[in-house]
Each structure stands twice: as structure tokens, then as C-alpha cells.
Amino acid sequence: MSFTRVRAALVVGLLIFAAIVVAVVALVRDSQAGAAPGENCPPGAARVDLTLPDTAAEVKLRVFNGTAAKGTAERVSRDFKDRGFQMQPAAATKSKHAGVAIVRYGPKTVGAAQWIRAYFLGEAETAYNPKQTTDVIDVVIGERFRQLATRTEVNQSLAQLSEPQLPPGACPAP
């Protein structure tokens, strides 16, 4: 065997040995090993559920009429119920909304609220309340609302909206 081949084999062997040493050191000194999600959450920060529900039956909604037209909340509640959502009784609100809708939600329903936004093609405003303790999402229907999106439109809208984002000052639920 020539000297160049021996030298090349020695260099390759040293590189492999160095790679093994670096990998072992990285695994041993990993500061995140065994860390649960949200473990470094500051005290008092809300822990939120970012997962999208598997079925509509897992989501509870309450629809409010923020328009001048009577019966709007009841009609939208029926539409959501026909799509399989758990519905609370529809209600009126004293404040009117000029936009399409407002989706109000708390820490337990961050992922589900993203899905509900998709039914308004991403045009609904969001109102996150870290102190909301229920798992009910409130939807205020506004003057610009026309109809809920179809299943295909909802899927397209979800793709455009992307994954639910962590609200400011919140931590992901473990």
C-alpha cells in the first residue's frame, strides 16, 4: 500500500472518529432532553391548545347576531349544527359589527378557533381572551356576512391560514 493511501485512510478514520465524538457530546450535553412542551412557561401564562379538532362534534359554538337583521344568529347556528358542531343557544348582542364576523375564544380553543375562521374564509376578526375558562367559541355575525364556506372552501382557507399561532404571552399546553 502506498503512503498516500495510508495517509488518506488515516484522515478518513480521524474524521469518522471526530464525528462520533461530536455526536456523543451533543447528546450528553443536550439541555432539552426530557423537556416537556411548555415546561419553561412563565408563571401565570395561559397554556393553550393549538391542535385542530378531528371532528366538528368536538367544537362547541355560540352564535351572536351582530347585525340589524333578525334571525341571523339562529340561521347561522343551524348551518353550523348541520355541519356537526355542538351548538349553544343563539343570542343577540347589543353591539353591532360592521365586518364579516368576530371569533372570540380562550386558551382551550385556539386550534378550534382557527378552524372556525376558515368557515369565514379567514375574513373573521379574532378576539383571544386568556381569562376565558370555557371551551365554547363565541361567533359574532357581522353585517358583511353572507354565508358559511363550503367544505372545499374551508379546506382551502385552512391551508392559507396555516397552523394556529401561539397567542402573545401564552405557552403551548403539554
The biggest sheet amounts to: 6 strands, mixed
Total helical elements:
4
Cα end-to-end separation: 59 Å
Shape: elongated
Order of helices and strands: HEEHEEEHEEHE
Tally of DSSP β-strands = 8
- If you compute it from the alpha carbons, what radius of gyration comes out, rounded to the nearest whole angstrom? 26 Å
Helix/sheet category? alpha/beta
Spans with pLDDT under 50 lasting ≥5 residues? Answer: 34-38
Strand proportion: 15-25%
Helix content range: 25-40%
Whole-number average pLDDT?
Answer: 89
Task: Describe this structure in a few short sentences.
The strands form 2 sheets. Strands 2, 3, 4, 5, 6 and 7 form a 6-stranded mixed beta sheet that branches. Strands 1-8 form a two-stranded parallel sheet.
Q: What do you see in this structure?
A:
The protein has 174 residues and is of the alpha/beta class. 33% of the residues lie in helices and 18% in strands. It contains four helices and eight strands; from the N terminus they run αββαβββαββαβ. The protein has helices at residues 3-28, 72-82, 110-118, 151-161; strands at residues 46-48, 60-65, 86-87, 91-92, 101-105, 125-128, 136-141, 170-172. Strands 2, 3, 4, 5, 6 and 7 form a six-stranded mixed sheet that branches. Strands 1-8 form a two-stranded parallel sheet. Strand 2 (60-65), helix 2 (72-82) and strand 3 (86-87) form a beta-alpha-beta unit. Helix 3 (110-118) packs across helix 4. The chain is elongated, with a radius of gyration of 26 Å. The N and C termini lie far apart (59 Å). The model is unreliable at 34-38 (pLDDT under 50).
